[in-house]
Amino acid sequence: MLPKQRSLGGGKNITRVGPGYYSFNWWLNGTDKDGRCLFVDAPPDAFVASGHGGERMLWIFPSLDLVVAWNDGRIDDHDASPGNAKTKCNQAARLIGEAASAPHLRVALTEGRWHFNGRPTNRGSRAEGLLMNVRMVNAVFEDRKRPDFDPEANTDKFLDRIADYAAHGVRAFTLCLQGGFPGYEGAENSAFRSDGSLRGPYLRRVRRVIEACDRHGMAVILGCYYQRQDQILRDEAAVRAGVVNVAQWIKASGFTNVVLEIANEYPHSGFDHRILKTAAGQVELIRLARKTAPGLLVSTSGLGDGKVSDEVAKASDFLLIHFNGVPVAEIAGRIKALKRYGKPIVCNEDDKIGESAARAAAMCVAQGASWGFMLEKVNQHSPFTFRGAADDKAVYRELKRLTAERP
């Protein structure tokens, strides 16, 4: 049974169905106060008319200029319940999104500022031209040693909250094809096989997130390698092959909302392969990625001290830094030291929380640098939790303020 209808005036009845609405045989996607959509894989403005238990549907996607007629003869004629119709609508939304939703957000750097579709990000705000971001590397996590963990359900939970993160000023997420530390040792979490080739199931989750970000007007900083996981690749030739394969996949997929991070904190002692833990090796891999996919913006990140080696800085399209170990009072000095390279500065990992993190974000913006939040024990440590702005109210309140147009 559907929930009890309530009148919205004018004699029209509408039913609240979780985050969306149901009225006169139409399901309206919409979002609730927490930014959740009824159909996670469809844009918020989508709506659908569903026939017998979801057997036939008419989907309308205004933001995509797309109308889809859906006919699924596999439906069980004895199950025409509203609940089954909603399930079928969700399945159809996912398939339509994967097959028909072409990327349309184009990320670019123009005169040192981030642009989306030819316009600076956050126009008219304190953070104009900046890329405010959040580290969500374990939104696509898997552990091949843990059959009890459901990677798809984990990604679903994250996708369910993307709209809320976007509404609070987040313009990009950092993902990684080898994830991040999940709070316990021994996980096997990698999109790469030992020869550097790519694993389909892992890529499909990453694709779902990239395409969802695209629909919400967001970019993705996609990392390749993470310490604790590079040991899966058998040698340096495999590491090089992995970079080539990732760059080719981005290019072949037509993703224009993706920039590439070769490695997360490349000097970390947890890396085994020399090419990954030296500045010279990072420079080689940056150039390899750029040669494979001309036009792709490429960088790599150092440790949590907010510093970049000279040769990496010169080879990168933008500077990726981490501020985990940098007090708020010292952030301005670190940014000032990097400005001599004349390249955009993006912090994409800072593990401060609450008001301290909010001050760090404001300090970065005041210095003309993008800031990135890492809520390690909530978003990155198992069990992974994604609650949108409720993750850390002080931080997301500040992000929203910094990216809001000034009067």
What does this entry look like structurally?
With 407 residues, the protein is an alpha/beta fold. It is 32% helix and 18% strand. Helix 2 (151-159) packs parallel to helix 4. The longest helix has 19 residues, at 82-100. The protein is globular and about 60 Å long. Residues 1-12 and 73-80 have low confidence and may be disordered.
Average pLDDT score: 88
Numbering strands along the chain, what is their spatial order in the largest sheet? 1-2-3-4-5-6-7
Radius of gyration: 22 Å
The major beta sheet can be summarized as: 7 strands, antiparallel
**Spans with pLDDT under 50 lasting ≥5 residues?**
1-12, 73-80
Order of helices and strands: EEEEEEEHEEEEHHEHEHEHHEHEHEHEHH
Helical coverage, percent range: 25-40%
The fraction of residues assigned to DSSP E strands is 15-25%
The count of strands amounts to 18
Query: Counting H and I runs of at least 4 residues, what is the number of helices?
Result: 12
- N- to C-terminal distance: 47 Å
Secondary-structure content class: alpha/beta
Query: Rough shape?
Result: globular
